[in-house]
Design a protein that fits this description.
The chain is mostly helical. It is built from six helices and no strands. The protein is about 60% helix and about 0% strand. The longest helix has 23 residues. The chain binds heme C.
Length: about 110
């Protein structure tokens, strides 16, 4: 009996930690936010819609998060991105980075 409930406790905590991870990085929430705040310039697909904006599709999670936090803190400055980044929480930044990094891109190189 004791052993049984101990196992149950382990299973419950495993399930809980899996839920925490899922809540921590949520690409669907990231996509919804992209539609509200980023798509005009970077596209939902991460391919830039204005010439001065970079493509974000397939960029690594860590790079995207670092840049967004740098814009937010003022370490990196840009008249558009500094304004946008001010409105983002850590969780939103993680979700946005998760969305753009989840996009698969291919490169075609001229011979
Ligand atoms: C009004 C246009 C505009 C909007 C809206 C916008 N961006 Fe940007 N973004 C830019 C421009 C322009 C740059 C290039 C900044 C620079 O030259 O330093 C940039 C740069 C970035 C970079 C750095 C990329 C790199 O290669 O270093 C990231 C990451 C980024 N944007 C994410 C986002 C996210 C996420 C959103 C939505 C929350 C967003 N941007 C909304 C225009 C925009």
């Amino acid at each position: 009996m004791y052993r049984h409930s101990f196992l149950g406790l382990i299973m419950t905590s495993l399930a809980l930690s899996a839920m925490t991870v899922a809540a921590y990085a949520d690409p669907a929430a990231g996509k919804a936010l992209v539609k509200q705040k980023c798509q005009t310039c970077h596209g939902v697909d991460g391919i830039a819609k204005i010439p001065i904006a970079p493509h974000l599709a397939g960029e690594s999670q860590i790079y995207l998060e670092t840049q967004l936090k740098a814009f937010r803190s003022g370490k990196r400055e840009n008249e558009m991105m500094s304004v946008v980044a001010q409105t983002l929480t850590d969780e939103e930044i993680t979700n946005l980075a998760e969305w753009y990094s989840s996009i698969t891109i291919t490169a075609k190189v001229l011979e």
